[in-house]
Amino acid sequence: MDAKSKFSSDIELEREFEALPPEDFLYDRRGPWPQPSPNHPFGEAPGVLHIPWQEWLYWWFKIGSRYVFFWVLCWPIALLKALLWWKVSPVSDEEFSDYFYNSCYAKFLTEEFTDDTKNIFKDYIKENKTYYYCDFVGMSALKPLKGVQCEPSITLFEKTDDGIRPIAINLRDYVCDPTDGDLWMLGKYIALQAAANHVIVATHPRLHFPMDAINAITKTAIPKDHILFQLIYPHTELTLKLDWQVLNSKLSLLENKWWMIYAPFPASAESMRDLVVLGYHGIQDNPAYPKYEYPLMGPQKVVSPYGTFHDEYYKVYYQFVEEVLNEVPDDDKFIIRWCDYIHAEMPSFPSAQKVQSDRKLLTHAVASYMWDVSLGHAADHKTYAEIPVNKNPLRVRVASPTYKNPDFKLKLGNVASLLDQTRLVLANWMFFKPCNVSNLIDVEYNFRLEKLKDASSSFKKNLKETEANLKTKNYMPVDQIPPSIQY
Ligand SMILES: [Fe+2]
User: Fold this and answer.
1) What's 144's DSSP letter?
2) CA dist., res. 211 & res. 208, Å (int)
3) pLDDT of amino acid 1
């Protein structure tokens, strides 16, 4: 009896096994793999806890060393900048609308009104007009640091010909509007504070962490010569260690310790983590807090040019992925396993069975990954980091009055402290502002087929053409898009 028949009578299985020599895989088939999150196995995306040493070292060389440089040497400059701005500056209604319409905050504009939101704003909503609202009830989950406020709010916007304008803000059990002077100004800071905390901790992580499962499984379960590996690998650079650092390091800004001059958050580390869970898990029956589902219809629908911008580019990613995957047979065993491995960790990722009955699902799954980790992620960072820090504090130290008080006076100097703003300036430089290690436009896919080399050239050409024909603001120039999550 030879070794094969000793272990199995299924000859097909053994032939498959012979096609898996360890050296054909990036890490000899001992690579990274996702597992349930140690912090919250049900409320956070699966995490990758064991990072190959090569990726660990490369991250320290390219990114970690930069963090240390900023932390040790640049905080005095951040302090100086906060001093020059003198904490916070007034925010006009036009600026407020612009931040919510032309940045990643546009993702918070909700069209679907619940009975509660209709009731709250019943005195403001008129027929034949279009309204959106931004609900930040999630702020109630935060346990604020001493002297800091974390208030929930709901802002009502009206659609105008060229954008939106703020109509009213719900604070506590009353609503204020632009006629309310200082209370209205405070309402805008409260809404902006919530938007910033939600972007950083609740919604932006939806672009980061679910993609780690795909990153790790591709490296470990797909041979280096496989077309799918060649397509995805350039889009995995630096991300596993970066995400590990955010979620698991004792030095992570999420720990929000007092001595971390780069940690800008307004609440305890534990409750900031609850906001991460809220962002992933959603809130039942609240359309402003949808549960995370792996995107299989392209980018999240956003009712502003920010959404149109992403939709236009997504078509270019989809076309490229479709051309590449056309070269892979329907019954490719590596892709079948790849889908099922990811599906097992993240049930909203399509299983092999689903992909085999609808090939477009596979194309969307791969195109969504590539769009997400490059343009989808980077444009969030760029548009958030461009909102002036002195108009958008993460910590607000003035509480709204317990009842609607027409004599309420707001001292701008009390809205945030100098140290709050210093932390935010430094965090913006270190973590939020885009800082590419490599660029999408320079990526060389390791395709062997000439046809696919041509497809990758067309992909880059089409990105440029899309940029030239944009009908929206150019939220992220093509030359500045990184191929993977690098910040
Ligand atoms: Fe990020």
Assistant:
1) B
2) 6
3) 47
The residue assigned the tokens 């919250």 is 40
The DSSP secondary-structure symbol of 351 reads P
Q: Give dist(CA 283, CA 276) in Å, integer.
A: 12
pLDDT of 418:
94
Distance 437 CA to ligand 1 centre (A): 14
pLDDT in tens, 209-259: 999 999 999 999 999 999 999 999 999 999 999 999 999 999 999 999 999
Q: Which of 445, 36, 25 is nearest to 219 (CA)?
A: 25
Beta carbons of 188 and 177 less than 8 angstroms apart = no
In order of their start, the domains of the chain are: 12-51+205-262+293-387+435-487 (1.20.245.10), 74-203+390-433 (no CATH)
* Size (the chain), residues: 487
| Ligand 1 centroid from CA 381, angstroms | 6
Give the pLDDT means over successive 10-residue stretches in the chain (487 positions): 55 75 94 93 93 96 94 92 86 98 98 96 96 98 98 98 97 96 97 98 97 98 97 97 95 94 96 95 95 96 97 98 96 95 97 95 98 98 97 97 92 95 95 96 96 97 98 97 97
Chain position carrying tokens 């971390």: 260
The distance from CA 97 to its chain's CA centroid, rounded to whole angstroms, is: 21
Give the distance (Å) from ligand 1 centre to CA of residue 23: 33
Is the overall model pTM greater than 0.70, yes or no? Answer: yes
CA of 19 to the centre of ligand 1 (A): 37
The 3-state DSSP class for residue 226 equals coil
- Determine the Cα–Cα distance for residues 28 and 22; give it in Å rounded to an integer: 4
Report how far ligand 1's centroid is from the alpha carbon of 434 (Å).
Answer: 9
The token pair that represents 390 in the structure block: 């002195």
Could you identify the residue written with the tokens 């962490």? 209
3-state DSSP assignment of residue 148: coil
Query: Identity (one letter) of the amino acid at 163?
Result: G
pLDDT, tens only, 291-325? 999 999 999 999 999 999 999 999 999 999 999 99
Q: Are 71 and 261 in contact (CB under 8 A)?
A: yes
C-alpha of residue 428 to centroid of ligand 1, in Å: 12
Q: Residue 73 burial (CB < 10 Å; 0-12/13-18/19+)?
A: exposed
